[in-house]
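call fold(seq) -> tokens
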Amino acid sequence: MWPFSAILALALLVVCDARNKVILTNDDGWAVAQIRAEYTALKAAGFDVILSAPAENESGTGSSTATPTTLTIPCEFNTCATGSPAEGSDATDPRINYVNSFPVDAVRFGIQTLAPKFFHGAKPDFVISGTNIGNNLGSVVNISGTVGAASEAALEGIPSIAFSGDTGSQVSFTTLNQTTASSTESAHIYTALVLKFTHALLNNRGAILPAGISLNVNFASISNCTSAAHYKFVLTRLTADSGAIDVRTCGTNHLPVESTEIAEGCIATVSVFNASNKADVNAATQAVVLHKLTSLLSCP
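ret:
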């Protein structure tokens, strides 16, 4: 088990510079354990965070979009009633919000409506999408709502990361008090990895990421990885392409494919993708990200 106290200890290592305004979203829904664990830890780390996520599980909806509508069924885990408005918030925390539509619409609501309200007219500094329940590897990024939300943020000019993890369950945040449950353990381990990665990315001068791109980060199963400290981050590409020339690192200009590399153990893959077409980027763009994450990345 990854104790919550340890997560908070790691969270407090985050050096929150002026770029600490975060929109947190996903495609699994606003009330799943994973996103609520991240929300709590980001707040504890000093981030100014708003949660804006779908009212229901919208996995597999890619970049679909529609006008949010009044609830005709309750929100997931009965966290809001039938007939609730198209957008709403938690009764005790107005920064926890649902949107009754797709992930793209949820992150758009966070960026365009909630951010000006809670960030005093300012835009968010970056968007964290996920951690998704289940990995999003290779061509699956085209149908992933988690990746779709991250892409939407990047296209709106907000740096973004799509996180996904192999372990976990579609369970309510109320189960987080079941400390020995696998879903709770994975929520805490993946949350610690999200914080570690975000800290490394923000610990740079200049733009957080190049315009129009996002990062696809996938965490291996926790089955043999009982601590965030067991994981290593590896720069990868989305899909295999023998003719592609990638950024030179670890003695080669051919990055490993994320779906292959993640099977090598306690691995977190990091692929740089174009938010417009969800495809691998060129070597020059990969190099910018490599430079920003040098302190974090390891060789395969």
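The radius of gyration is 18 Å.
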